[in-house]
Amino acid sequence: KRELQAPALAAGFQNPREIDDLDPEGNLIQEVLGVRKTARDFFTEFVTHEKVFDQKFEREVFVGLCHNDLHGGNLLLDSQGLVWLIDFATVKKDVHVLIDPTKFVSACLFLYLGDNISEDFVRSIAKLLSVTPDATTALPLSSTNELIKDDPCAMFLVDLLARLRYCICIYEIGDEGPHNDGVPFAVALFSWSARMLSYNEPNLFQKTRALYFALASAQRLLWEVGVDVGPVPLEWIEEFRQVWEGRKGRRLST
Hints:
Blueprint: H1 2-5, H2 7-13, H3 27-33, H4 39-46, H5 50-56, E1 63-66, E2 75-77, E3 83-85, E4 92-96, H6 99-112, H7 119-130, H8 152-172, H9 183-196, H10 204-224, H11 231-248
Antiparallel strand pairs: 1-4, 2-3
Helix pairs in contact: 3-10, 6-8, 6-9, 6-10, 7-10, 9-10
């Protein structure tokens, strides 16, 4: 549809034209899923579980006014150090309150974090965020991590993620708050990761990183509804659940 309306504009959205071009050798699929298949085949199979997702993930969440496009391009810093939020064309009401902070987290990870940082560390973040537990636990990451201690940008990102996690916890808890098991955040993370693949702004490197996050968060969702995800996803899901477990010192609510 975009190509018919404006071929030049559509070019960015169609880069690449096929999602498999982001992982031509299937290395990301192999690492996250432990199987040999294409990204297209995975997502084609993933959407067949839509009805199960609708049933399993129907729950009460906090809703409110949502900017719906919260990223660095819509934040301005003036000469006095004040931050101004702009572009309210996509504002919606009665939207899950985690949509905005999750979009900002995604933008930071995919668009603003360069390729100078260890990609292994970024992928660890993807798996860690994908298995987020209930909103009572601080992010188990530190800017003193050996992989990033010499990278000021990465250190700043980790501190930013920790602060955003704190905000998310505030949004999701309270005396009258609904039960939270981390799934609403995982759903939002998958949504923004997958949507980033069709945006025109990210380059191929950034879209490849978004694909990894989409694959990882998809495994959490499949695992939650009882789909047999296989031994490789089960292994890293349990590994990173234990990372969160160690942080909170008690069993996960899920």
